[in-house]
Structures are given as C-alpha cells and as structure tokens.
Amino acid sequence: MRTPPTDPSDELRRSPAGGQRSRSGKPITGEQVEFDAVSADEADDEELHAIILEDEDEDGTSSEAAGTITESPSTPAPAPPPVPVRQLVLIGAGHAHLQILNWWRERSIANTELTMVTAFGQVAYAGMLPSTLAGLYTPEEMLIDLPKLCERCGVRLIVDRANRFDPENRVIEFAHQPALKFDVASINIGSVPAEEPLWQSHRVLISVKPLPSFLQRFAVRFRELVEQWRMAPGPELLQIVVVGAGAAGVELALCLEQHKHELELPADVRIIDGNKTILNGFAPRTVRRVEKLLRVRGVDLSMGSPVADCDDEGVPTLVLENGERIRADLVIWAAGASPPMALHGFELPKSPRGFLSTRTTLQSIADVPVFVAGDCADLEFHAIPKAGVYAVRQAPILWQNLQNFLARRPLVEYTPQQGFLRLLSCGDGTAILDYKGFSSHSSWAWMLKDWIDRGWVKKFQVK
Ligand SMILES: Cc1cc2nc3c(=O)[nH]c(=O)nc-3n(C[C@H](O)[C@H](O)[C@H](O)COP(=O)(O)OP(=O)(O)OC[C@H]3O[C@@H](n4cnc5c(N)ncnc54)[C@H](O)[C@@H]3O)c2cc1C
Fold it and tell me: Most buried of 141, 165, 314, 382 (most Cβ within 10 A)?
C-alpha cells in the first residue's frame, strides 16, 4: 500500500494535469496513470521497464485487474515525479456513505485513498430498531460492524466524532484523535431529535440518537424501572412516554406497547407531540387507521402542546408548554429532526434551520471540495423530508460526483423522488403501509418491510 503524502492538499495542488511522458514517449496525465518505481526496479530490466499499475477508466474509476506492460525504450528516461495520492474522506456512516464503501470495493478511484470517519464503530439500522424493541429481531440483526466492513472494502476507518471542519485549510478535527487533512470530503452525519439541549441534560430522557447506543441506554433505564416496581409494586401503573408523533415515535410506541405486554409490565404508553395530529405528511386514511390502532392498543395521545421541560427531582415529570405536567417514568425522545450539535463547528454555509446548504449536485453551496448527503443536507430549491430513503437515493449521484470532481468533469444533478413507500412496524408481526394515498394494515405489509430491511442490512454485514 502506498504511503499518503504528509500534506495531500499541497500534493494535490502540485498534481500534474498533463504533460508527463511515459518511457515509451506517449503522453500521460497524472490522473490517468501511476508509475510505481519500486515495482519497476523489481521487474526484469530487459523485459519490463515500466509497469502501469492503475489505469483510470473514462469514468474515473480504476480497474486494478491487469497491469499494462510497455516496451523498453533504448535509453532510460528519468523517472517521472510520483503522482500524489488524493485523500477522499467520508464523514459519518450514513446511508449514502455505506453504499459508497461497497462501490469502492467493486471499483476504487485511481490514485486516491478513502477514509471513513465516524462517531461509532457500529451502525444500528433505524428501520429495524422499533421491531428490535418489540423482540422481533435480535440486536445483532440490525447492527453493521464498521471495522469489518471497512476492512473488506479496503477503506481506512477512524472511529471518532468530527467536531470541527475547516474547508479553507481542508482539515477535520476530532474529539480525541489528531486532525486529518483531506482533498475532497463528503458529509453524511444524519440528524438528531429536536431540543438536543433539553434531552442531553436529563438522564430520564432517552434520545433515539445516537442509534448505536440506544438499546443499551434504554435497557439500563428499563431494568431499573422493572426492578423498582417488582420490589415495591404499587397500585399505579408505570408511565412510558414517547415524545414525537412522527413515523419513528408512533412505531416506537406500538413496539414498546408490545414489549411491555410480553413482559407483563403494568405500564401505560403515551405519545406527546406539539402538533395537533399524528403522522404529519401521511395520507389521511393512514392517520385514521393508526389513530384507531393506538386506541385499541391502549396508547394515549397528548397532542397540541410540546414538552417545555423535564422535572426529574422525585417522580420524573414532563412539563408541557401549556403548563400541564405528565408523570413519565421512562421517556423516549423521538421528536423531529434537528441538526447535530457538531455542525456548529463545521465552517460551511447553513440553511435557516441549521443544516448544511447544499446544491442539487450535493456539493456544499460554498465553493469548496465538500459534498453533503442525507438528513444533514438542506437542498437548494427542494424541501425534502428527513428520511433514510432520500439518503439511499442520493448515494449513486454522490458517488458519481465524487468521481467527476476528482476527474475534473462536470457534476450531475440529483432530483428527489415524489413521495416514498412508508412501512410502520406495529411490533406484532403486522405493519402499516402508506404509499401515494394507499394504506393497508396487514401481515403482508410486515413481510415486505422485513424483506426490505433485512436485505438492506445484509449488504453491509460481514460474517
Ligand atoms: C426509530 C426510527 C425509525 C426510522 N425508520 C425509518 C424508516 O423506516 N425509513 C426511513 O426512510 N427513515 C426512517 N427513519 C429516519 C432515518 O433514520 C433518518 O432519516 C436516517 O437515518 C438519516 O440517514 P443519514 O444517511 O442522513 O444519516 P444516519 O443514517 O443517521 O447516519 C449518520 C452517521 O453519522 C455518524 N455521525 C454523527 N455525527 C457524527 C460526527 N460528528 N462525526 C462523525 N460521525 C458522526 C453517526 O454515528 C452515523 O453513523 C427512522 C428514524 C428513527 C429514529
């Protein structure tokens, strides 16, 4: 493996755009051909004088399969200067970046090293998380092991939180590790539930993000409660609250209700949201169907006033904006999607909501070699929901544009799809399907969801 240059940006600036000549006298460009002096020295001088190791195809990817052997000239010319290795860095193991790892494994970009930087060594797949709570999956089934995946794909992995991003000097700073330089970077760090300062400062508020640590944080609090109740069972039911009545909150509430049922735990489940209705953006028919299901399953709704505070002295209580106080022994925070705090340290233009302002080519609107995908991007001219499916569809455009950018070719544009298939797990082997006004609550909807979700995770699981 080649050693990366100490300052890749400088090297990149010195990168020959053309004008070099191979020993056979044919013009070559720095971006097309790499000369490996060590390999050439080791080769039989009589027969092999130049070995071209990586031959970049028209699309900017390299086909490493066969080295091309050229004829020896009569007098050896001086070795051409080494072509600098470009540093491509992916920040965050979001949906778009995971796919890029697999595509890199199939066809890497010539003369480029790929590094993945991410806050956790594991990815927990959000689509399977509520069903895991309900006991329909084991935690291992929804987890992706990044060290194994990166090793299989030939990608360097740094597990740390990026908390400063300086596009001018092309430097990423971390919580613990030394800073990293890059030539081109892509950011796919997702979003976090709204009101981060509030849920960060109360132990009883368990945010769904970060996803990889959610199950563990949930289990600690849940066990505590179950033990408390078993030691001193009182007449009052335990109060489990999910904050947020979007798709994630509703799914979590239904799956938790199933979970407590199986544990025979005397608990009430309630959803709280500042909106007046659940499932904003879903077909009215689906909303009615889910409201009925929640009633049948005994999940209460407190709608129309957001949570303003949490009083965790004594019996934990949520204080709503309208002054109402709701006892809450266990709270799962799944309200909305906000920019992660780390973005404060990313010196890039932001939208009024605080996400990274991004062109339809997925390049930051600043004139810098930085791309953005998934929830952390707010696209110019499009208001798209914060959902994993968009990040999935952005991945091929992102991959194409990273290659185009490195090869100095024009970038292509991403067009968001109109609407998408939504499948909500009910935790009992059924699911609710919502697609372009059509709605169904059935076990076949669950089978479809299960098939899609397992298929997605399997692509990245290394046994
Ligand atoms: C319970 C639940 C269920 C959901 N179900 C669905 C569903 O069925 N379908 C759907 O489309 N959407 C669903 N969503 C929404 C979906 O999870 C998000 O929209 C989606 O994960 C966003 O994807 P992303 O690619 O932008 O980033 P993510 O998938 O969130 O990935 C972000 C990555 O960046 C890493 N990271 C974060 N900060 C940093 C940092 N500072 N430095 C380095 N790395 C960092 C994280 O560790 C993570 O690996 C669900 C959400 C929840 C909470």
Answer: 165
